[in-house]
Amino acid sequence: MRFPFRSRAAAVPPVTPGAVPGPQDEVLLETVGLTKAYAGAAGQLPVLSGIDLTVRAGEIVAVLGRSGSGKSTLLRCLAGLIPPSSGTVRYRDTPLTGANPGTALVFQTFALLPWLTVRQNVELGLEARGVPPRERSRAAAQAIDLIGLTGFESAYPKELSGGMRQRVGFARALVVEPDVLMMDEPFSALDVLTAENLRGELMELWDSGQFPTRAVVLVTHNIEEAVLMADRIVVLGARPYGTIRETVEVVLERPRDRDCAAFDELVDRVYRIMTGRPKDTRAPGRAGPGPDLDPDRRTVASAPLPSAGVDGLTGLAETIAHRGGSCDLAGLADELGLDIDDLLPQVDALDLLGFAEVHGDDLLLTETGTAYTGADGPDARAVFAAAALEVPLVKLIANSLGGRPGASVRTGFLRDLLGRHYTVEQTDRQLETATDWGRYAGLFAYDADRQEYRLEQRAE
Amino acid sequence: MTLPKPTPGRSRSPLPALSRASPPGRPRGSLPARTAGRLGGRVWVDLVVAAAVLVLLYLALRLGQGGTLRFSTARDAAVDTDPARLPYDALRSLLRMFAALAVSVVFTFCYAYAAARSRRLERVLIPALDILQSVPVLAFLSVAVSGFLALFPGSMLGLECAAVFAIFTSQAWNMTFAFYQALVSLPRELDELSRSFGFSRWTRFWKVELPSGMIGLVWNGMLGFGGGWFFLVASEAITVDNQRYALPGVGSYAGAAIAAGDLGRVGWAIATMVVLVIGVNFLFWRPLTAWAERFKNEQSEATEVQRSMVLDLLRRSRLPTALGRALRPVGRALNRAGRVFGTVDRPPAVHPQRRRAGDVAFALVSGGIVLWGLVDLGRYLAERTGLGVFGEPLLLGLATAARVVVLVAVATVVWVPIGVKIGFSPRLTRIAQPVVQVLASFPANFLYPLAIWLLLRTGVSIDLGGILLMALGSQWYILFNAIAGAMAVPADLREAMDDLGVRGWQRWRRLIIPAVFPAYVTGGITASGGAWNASIVAEVVTFGGTTLTATGLGAYIARAAEHGDHPHLLAGVAVMSLYVVALNRLLWRRLYRLAERRYSL
Q: What SS3 class is residue A355?
């Protein structure tokens, strides 16, 4: 089905994406050497670096990465919403100077205007282009029908369930028939069942050739989602900043079956890529990725603290211990129903503390890790304290206090220090983790009112 | 009265306006605090801007003064106090109020939009707003009157404009703050959405930006409107340069009745005022706030929503739909015309060095103008009175400050327990809230005659009684916010306290005071700002042939305004603004930060 209104590229013959090769090879979006940096305390802090990405007609490209890998930033660069710091973004060979005319966005948070009805929300993009009301409402009606929203036209977004809201988000983006549909974690705000249903319907639509766009860019942190939907998965690495770590072609037949061995194998492979510690992403002039380095040479800059509380990392360590000291990461995430965004920080934390190591697909408990899970009460804290003292930031705070009862370290000092390597949010998160670890280990106390670390006052 | 910067939006209480609830995703807290964060909280910015405002006032004064020479037609200030005239007078007053509201809305759109869009203007406009709302408007009423009279010589239009201007100054600042905040805290996705669809600036404003700011605008408009009655009453009958002017209106009617010492007619005026306040609330603000519910940017249906009978009636009738259909072509034409404003996309890349140069040039030019103004002002003051003119108001300010402090303290001790009691009981809340709303917007200066009568009977000096007069208008904000704060305390916290047997003083110390504290601070800021402003009319009061004058800065300003003594007026206003700003910075803002950090629920 084609919509009556077509804004651009009227000469382009109707295509059935995904099915037929041929004119499909046409390059729609292209980035060359794209870099994006934000101003930090001491100069520019890069979040993306050297991204070369091509999106061709007829394909679904998934950009996969953990939080902080800059995947949303990349999507916004492609959509022309933020200018790259260097490099170019081209849409059909034209470098972007503003919002990309050939893309439409689907947001994680839906971004519906709560004061407009479903129909009015869907018509927004057409209205902005000055489409006459009659045509507008016809096109909107068709998009609403296509996306399964019939009957909900006059509802306000707040009356709808999450899944229905995201359908409005899809209809709103599809009605303008963009060349490339940009999806920013479109299913991650939905519950598992709703997400699965919506994903399935969307893929059916794509496979049937009724999809009114010619390509899709999907940003996600969900590996299975990427393998299920994409023709190509671009894995972004987070350390030291977003670079393309690897690109994986997905050649599975559509519709894809989650239960087949090939699917599982691919999921495992992507897992390995994401948890692995590649040696080649080291940028010139910068310290390499941290945790693999010799502990003595780790610095605050090279070994950032993950957002993992003591409770969570202890829970993971004990789970591994229960399974005999080693387990398969992908299987574990699946079993516990955890997103990799929930799991990976804990894995990093265990790795940083020297409690566990990643080997291929597996997470292995080390000797200290086993000692930690085996001990309880004060002994566990002692093991943890010894391990935490090897972590650069915790060590830095403890050393600055120097064991002097009256001494204090102001967070401002640490912020200045970390600000040279991390954004404000990253700094905040790391200090939060350091505080949590240090408090549990009994290494120092933190006074939130005065914003300073002190030695813990022990009751005699 | 200086109202606070309420940021309503999420609160489900019928009194959200003064509660501290802010919409999700937006920075919480008062605007001054927030702005301070955004602008780096630099003292020198404040100083420069304060100087600029002072220069502006001075310029207005000089210009107005030039005009005063041109007219000398003594206007007959005698007002007919026949009660039959009251309906007509009331309508005239109402018209002034709505004219001021319209002006405030237009001002808000322009000022807030400019501040939100231009980085450089923001640096100046927002601190200026902060200072402007601390300037005692009443003091400048006389200046405004002479200025507008000069603009429209020999016509009542000047007086009308001055009255509208006075009301405007009581409404505009808060509306502007609220709208500016909505503009700068527009959810990121909505900004991205508008840009990705290539909305024109016009479309973006009406479809995205205005709706997101609508709730703040409506609630602050309503609060400002309530405060505006006070200024209406003060501005309809006024003495400038020893000459009395009066406009037909309920304020001047009351003024004349008070001057004649006729308590019966004062009673008529009060009754009219009550009808006006309740009527406007019922017919205009309640429907408007209920309608604004649809702009709540929340993704779930609120449990308790604003309702209005009038709005329900309108919604059921076919008239609005028909009107909407008739106006649709106009809207379409406007939309097309609005495209001339262009589209918003990412700003063109500017070289940091050129940007810096631009900033410096901007700072130099604006700083230069202010400096020149200051020098001229200094010369003017030195010529007229010498710079020692600031000494007296500084001393008198201490007296007024003492009154404000006593007022806030007493009002706190009295009203917080009552407010908490009301807020904890849904039944009491339902009964008390509408009453408190009317009390808060009822112009306190209407009640002054009664209070003076009381003072004369009991023989209490005005130096002390002035506190009571100032409190008449400003204490309600403390009650208001105590109620809202208590309503916001989660039921499970109260149940936990019951369960643990936490009672009496311990309950107050551990639960109630900390939980109500943030709302209380909002109320305290408002009450203290309102009290300063009220001191100008409360420290000199006349009833019948008796005039009572207290020792204080308010009386000093009132006297200077009445005699057209501009150097003293300027000094008085500057000093009072200084006191208000200093009190805000040194006390209230710190309390606010504390509330945000430690006591937010």
A: coil
Tokens of B62: 């000089």
- pLDDT value of residue A279: 44
Q: Which residues of B touch A103 (CB under 8 A)?
A: 196
Residue type at position B236:
E
Helix (H) or strand (E) run with residue A173 in it: helix A162-174
pTM, whole model, 2 decimals? 0.78
Backbone angles phi, psi at A211, to 5 degrees: -70, 125
B388 token code pair: 């020692």
Nearest CA in chain A to B328: A133
The residues near A175 (Cβ < 8 Å, ≥ 6 apart) are A3, A122, A123, A125, A126, A139, A140, A142, A143, A212
Q: What is the pLDDT of residues B77-119, one digit of tens each?
A: 556 777 778 888 888 899 999 999 999 999 999 999 999 888 8
Query: Is the Cα dihedral B203, B292, B301, B488 positive or negative?
Result: positive
* A205-252 confidence digits (pLDDT tens): 999 888 889 999 999 999 989 999 999 999 998 766 788 889 999 999
Place of tokens 């308010």: B554
Kindly report, residue by residue over B318-330, the tens digit of the pLDDT: 777 778 788 888 8
Closest CA to B202 of B326, B80, B113, B322: B113
Q: Which residues of chain B approach chain A closer than 8 Å at the C-beta?
A: 187, 189-190, 192-193, 195-200, 203, 207-208, 211, 214, 294-301, 336, 345-346, 349, 597-598
Q: Count other Cβ atoms within 10 Å, centred on residue A460.
A: 3
The residues pairing with A242 across neighbouring beta strands, listed in sequence order, are: A48
Q: Does A154 touch chain B (CB under 8 A)?
A: no
Q: How far apart are CA B161 and CA B146, in angstroms?
A: 11
Inter-residue contact B208 to B186 (CB < 8 Å): yes
Q: Looking at A265-269, B178-182, B252-256, B394-398, which range is the least confident one?
A: B252-256
Q: CB B198 to CB A100 under 8 A?
A: no
Q: Which of A83, A113, A129 sits opposite B208 (nearest CB)?
A: A113
B598: closest chain A residue by CA: A449
* Calpha distance B327→A221 (Å, rounded): 48
Strand order in the sheet with A94-95: A43-56, A27-40, A86-91, A94-95
Residue A250: both structure tokens together: 């997905």
Any B CB within 8 A of A186 CB: no
Give the position of tokens 């207290």: B550
Using an 8 Å Cβ cutoff, are A404 and A444 in contact? no
B192, B196, B197, B203: best to mutate for the A interface, most A CBs within 10 A = B196
ipTM: 0.74
The answer to whether B408 and B527 are in contact (CB under 8 A) is yes
SS3 B319: helix
Average pLDDT over residues A186-196: 91
Count, residues in chain A: 460
The sheet with strand A452-454 has its strands ordered as A408-410, A452-454, A445-447
A240 cis-preceded (ω within 30 degrees of 0) = yes
A126 in contact with B, Cβ within 8 Å: no
Which residues of A are less than 8 Å from B195 in CB distance? 81, 98-99
Q: Which residue has the tokens 């509330």?
A: B595
Are A82 and B208 within 8 A, CB to CB? no
Nearest CB among B196, B295, B300 relative to A115 is that of B295
